[in-house]
């Protein structure tokens, strides 16, 4: 499971703190050094760790904490609060178009889970009363179009395809199709590559210009740790992302991406993928994630 090692380490650190009763400044400082190491070992971005530890220390070394009846608990609460802040504080909801059709563009590298996530998101939206259309705009891998069709069939959601034509035209045509068929949300599954390249970014920018999406969500594989954060930075620079979807959090990721990506990119995590099944997508709640990390 995700965060397992981090949770274990934090628990050990906190157990020592709670066991001490009264705390000295040196105790807290020692604990902070250990928390810092645990976070670095969980592959959290170095600068993020530094800022976080500074914030926690500023609050934890004060008299209020030291003189409280349960100083250990107070320190844990501060760590919890700061982790919640770090991950975005509240749930970041999807933006919907106020008038017409809401267009959601899913972007990301190949294998990040984009096509699966398109289906999962369609399922969630459909459950909330929307009428989503899935658009197959990943034209370079013929299997990707088929894959989206299979997902659509499983979920009983319509899938718009035009084969391997210009993805900008496909995206535009899917908006017309949605108008005619009363779909109020379009989820566009765009092409991915193994690495970020200019051609891909250019194509995504052109799709963005053509259909003016309410959401451009980057699907990133949390198992790739700081690479996921770097990918997010690059995509954000080029496309001005509105949010992130972290996939494969059910795997044994150390957690670095989940803990760093919001702070580094400024983009909120909106959903997390928690398994291969189409029902395994959840809105991202920073508080729940922090509680999970702290075990
Ligand atoms: P794409 O190339 O970005 O469209 O990626 P796919 O949707 O084809 O997904 C790549 C692989 O990741 C597939 O085997 C998916 O089942 C798997 N996958 C996607 N999301 C998750 C997730 O949240 N958890 C797990 N365990 N696997 C996932």
Describe this structure in words.
By secondary structure, the chain is of the alpha/beta class. It is about 55% helix and about 15% strand. It has helices spanning about 5-20, 25-40, 45-60, 65, 70-85, 115-125, 140-155, 165-180, 200-210, 225-240, 255-265, 285-295, and strands at about 100-105, 130-135, 160, 185-190, 215-220, 245, 270-275, 280-285. It has an 8-stranded mixed β-sheet with strand order 3-2-4-1-5-6-7-8, with helices on both faces. Helix 5 (about 70-85) packs across helix 12 (about 285-295), helix 6 (about 115-125) packs parallel to helix 7 (about 140-155) and helix 10 (about 225-240) packs parallel to helix 11. The mean pLDDT is about 95. The protein binds guanosine-5'-diphosphate. Guanosine-5'-diphosphate binds near residues 116, 275 and 280.
Give keywords:
53% helix, eight-stranded mixed β-sheet, alpha/beta, 295 residues
SSE order in H/E notation?
HHHHHEHEHEHEHEHEHEEH
Count of helix runs: 12
Coarse structural class: alpha/beta
Fraction in helix: 40-55%
- % residues in beta strands: 5-15%
Strand order of the largest sheet: 3-2-4-1-5-6-7-8
Structure ligands: guanosine-5'-diphosphate
Q: Low-confidence segments, ≥5 residues, pLDDT <50?
A: none
Cα radius of gyration in angstroms: 21 Å
| Major sheet summary line | 8 strands, mixed
Task: Report how far the terminal alpha carbons are from each other.
Answer: 12 Å
Number of strands: 8
Chain-averaged pLDDT: 95
Shape summary: elongated
Domain SRP54-type proteins GTP-binding: 268-281
GO cellular component, one term: signal recognition particle
EC number: 3.6.5.4
Keywords: Cytoplasm, GTP-binding, Hydrolase, Nucleotide-binding, Ribonucleoprotein, RNA-binding, Signal recognition particle
